[in-house]
Every structure is written in C-alpha cells, then in structure tokens.
Design brief:
By secondary structure, the protein is α+β, with helices and mostly antiparallel strands. The protein is built from 16 helices and 19 strands. The radius of gyration is 25 Å and the shape is elongated.
C-alpha cells in the first residue's frame, strides 16, 4: 500500500519530517495514555469516532523500545529479554541486586502490573522477586494469557519476559512526545509527577501538565530544553537532563515514531534521568526506511485475522459487530459502516480489498470474514471503477462456493459492467441477496443478521 504522503501536496513542498507528519495524523492519539490524549485534544475537536479507532502502526515490546532509545543516547534500565525459565535464571543471577530482580511480562498492552493470568491464577504481570523465585514465577507466565485493563478480556500471550536490574528511584515524572494537529508538529507533554496515577493527576490538576509545541524543521531549541527540564523539577545534572530529553526527541524523529511515552521518566539517587519504562509507536508508512524496527513486529500479539489479511494485501481491522463487510476503497468502506450503524446494525470489521483485487484475494477475504463466529451476515459493497463489476462478481461466486458461506450474503454492485456482474450473481445458483443501492444493502444486511 502506498504511503499517504505520496498522494499529498506536502510530498513536494516540505521536509521529510513534515511529509511524515501528514501521514501520521491520528496514530498517536489512539495509543497514548488518557492524560496525554486529553492534553492533545483538550476541546474534543477530534471526533470520538476517530479517537476510538484502531490504527495501522507498529508497537514494540518494552525491551525492544529500551534498545532503540539507548541507540539515541537515552539512559534505560539494564535488562535481559528471556524466552525460557532457564534464561530467566541466568539473567536473574547476573542482574540481581541484594538478591532481587524485577520480572516483567512483555505484552503489547498497558496495565501489566495490575493484570492477572486466569489459567494459573497468578496476580500481576510485573514482580519484584528474589533471583531464586524468578524462574518459578516465569513458569506461571510463559505461554499464558495476561489480562489487563487494556488487553481486552481474552488477554495477550506472554512469550517474552524482561529481567531488569532493580533500581533505586528517587522521583518519578511523566514525559511524552506526540503529534499535535493544532500546531502541525510534535508536541512535548510532561509532568513533574509521574507513575501510574498520571491520568488522575491530569484530570484533577491540569495546570501541572507541560505542553510545548516543537518546530519539526528545527527541533527543540536550547531554551525549550531548559524550560522542560526546569518544569519537570530537575535540580541537578541539568546539562545531562537536556541531553536525555534531546535523545528522546531524536528517537521520535529519526525512527518515524507516532508516539514516545515515558512513564515514569525517573531520577535515580544520584539525580540522573532514566527512562524507566516507555511505550513507542511507529508509523507504518515509514516501514520502507525503518526495516530493522519493523522486523521486530510480534504477530503473536496481533489479531490473527489482521495478520492473515496483511499476508494477502488486504486492509482489515476487526471490530465487535455482527455484519461482516467487504468493500473496495477505504472511503466507501467507512461509508458502508456508517450506513449499517445508521440502520441499527453493527459492523464486524473494516475490510478494504482495494481497487484491483484478484479472485484469490476475495477468497481469502471471505475466509477471514466467515472465521469470525460473531458474523451473522455478510455485506459486499463494490463500486466498479478500476475493478469491473463482472470480474468482482465472478470472484464473489467462486469465493462463496469455495468457502461454503453459511450466513446470508448481501451484495450491492455499481459501476463498470454492473449489468454483467448482476447477471453472473443471478445465474450462480448461490443464495445471494441482491441490493439496488447502499441504503437498500444496509437495510437487508441488518435484517438478515437480526
């Protein structure tokens, strides 16, 4: 899929950083903590529909993010990623301080510390424990689903554990860099108080939140770095603190991040800043130049339907409704979902097969849609432009026969060779519910799914 920047006037006018910004619009807003999100959208100017949408961007595990930040001069905790209890034992023996280590489950969801493992009954995905206890705890974590407030009820599988050196932290702060639509560039958001209560703090004391727009072409000035460090409450090693903030910004820009969120950004007992825990998101449109980073993608953490769709160049996002939608074109797909909702239905997915889908892609799309047990009806909405209606109709018939569709199938065709396409569907012998227009199709799909 081509980068959004390739179709933008910005592509020939502005710097590479500004061109990326055009394509990185809502990404950070949907993945940051609520405190940062509210600061970036204080008046609710961005519609809730977009704020709640899943987006196509890369998340990496904590240990991977720490490695990336360290490459840009950011100070991170010493840790070792492990995949077996034996590796946990070796890492714990190496990193223990006063006989203790920090054992962290690695999943792509927040709230790990307060999560739980339903199968083993273990409470908490993050533990401070003795080096001797670590392998035993690891056995209760590896291969299990960790359920947190952000993972969904099914949880996320734990295949990695991060053994970190226990740190003595004197103070915790909050720091993030994200994209701000109002200033058309990056924005630094920070607070002199951080940790797990940042959302409550931002709600009760919004005046404590630092919000600083940054010129994307020049980066933060020395005066801005001074102000950030001062407002974070840093009292010593000021030049080093400025270097740490500059390193986080460098990570954001050079790695095509949509968000860098450090919570907590901490001071150790010597007053040195350390990115104790961080969440990094990366713009999918930059995958062509961030190959090493995108090679870190952990498909085990993703919706398996989305992983399967990506293999066949299908744009799929799973939702929680009962009407499976297959459409050509992202705009038409969004409109289809809207009309379904307008008539009292609930879309089960966003699925754009593109303008030149092959029969094989259509077959795979049907397999993905019908694999969702919540789908009670299928709605195919095709506007034939580049994709001719007779070609898509033949693909629908072949796919329906091969996949053995057992739920009602509603099809609306319009555009090039539409009459030929409708004739193919009519003579196929398959029980297809034909629709005259989008409104008619949505009504019939909602009725069929009821």
């Amino acid at each position: 899929m081509a980068s959004a920047a390739a179709y933008s006037p910005l592509a020939t006018t502005f710097s590479p950083q500004m061109r990326c910004f055009a394509a990185r619009g809502f990404h950070a807003l949907t993945n940051m903590s609520s405190a940062a999100r509210n600061s970036a959208n204080p008046a609710g100017t961005i519609p809730a529909f977009f704020m709640n949408q899943q987006t196509r961007l890369l998340n990496v595990h904590e240990f991977q993010g720490a490695d990336i930040m360290s490459q840009h001069g950011v100070r991170v905790p010493l840790g070792i990623a492990c995949k077996t209890p034996e590796e946990v034992k070796a890492a714990s023996d190496k990193l223990q301080v006063d006989g203790e280590v920090v054992l962290k489950s690695q999943i792509l969801a927040g709230g790990r510390g307060l999560g739980h493992f339903p199968a083993t009954g273990l409470q908490g995905g993050v533990h401070i424990c003795t080096a001797e206890e670590a392998p035993k705890l690891a056995e209760k974590m590896f291969g299990q689903q960790l359920v947190t407030k952000q993972s969904g009820p099914e949880g996320k599988p734990v295949h990695w554990l991060y053994i970190a050196k226990k740190m003595a932290l004197a103070r915790e702060m909050y720091f993030a860099i994200l994209l701000d639509r109002a200033s058309a560039g990056p924005m630094i958001i920070g607070c002199s108080e951080g940790g797990t209560s940042i959302e409550d703090l931002a709600e009760k004391f919004p005046e404590k939140i630092i919000k600083m727009p940054i010129n994307i072409n020049t980066g933060p000035t020395d005066a801005q770095l001074d102000e950030v460090v001062s407002r974070l409450g840093v009292k010593s090693h000021l030049d080093d603190a400025k270097k740490q903030i500059a390193g986080l910004y460098e990570t954001f820009i050079k790695c095509d991040c949509t968000m860098v969120e450090v919570n907590p950004l901490a001071e150790d007992t010597e007053g040195m800043l350390i990115a104790a825990d961080a969440k990094l998101n990366f713009d999918d449109n930059a995958s062509f130049r961030q190959k090493d980073i995108f090679a870190l993608k952990d498909d085990a953490q993703a919706d398996p339907r989305e992983v399967a769709a990506a293999k066949y160049d299908l744009n799929y996002i799973g939702l929680d409704g009962s009407i499976g939608c297959m459409v050509n074109g992202a705009g038409l797909a969004m409109a289809t979902m809207d009309i379904v909702s307008l008539h009292g239905g609930s879309p089960a997915n966003f699925l754009d097969v593109g303008g030149s889908a092959s029969e094989g892609q259509i077959v795979e799309a049907f397999k993905i849609l019908t694999a969702d047990h919540r789908v009670k009806a299928l709605l195919v909405n095709i506007f034939g432009g580049i994709m001719k209606c007779d070609v898509i109709a033949a693909g629908i018939v072949a796919a329906a026969k091969q996949v053995n569709v057992t739920v009602p199938l509603v099809v609306r065709l319009e555009g090039t060779n539409v009459d030929a396409g409708k004739e193919i569907l009519k003579s196929s012998g398959i029980n297809i519910i034909a629709a005259d227009d989008l409104d008619d199709a949505a009504k019939k799909a909602v009725l069929a799914a009821a």
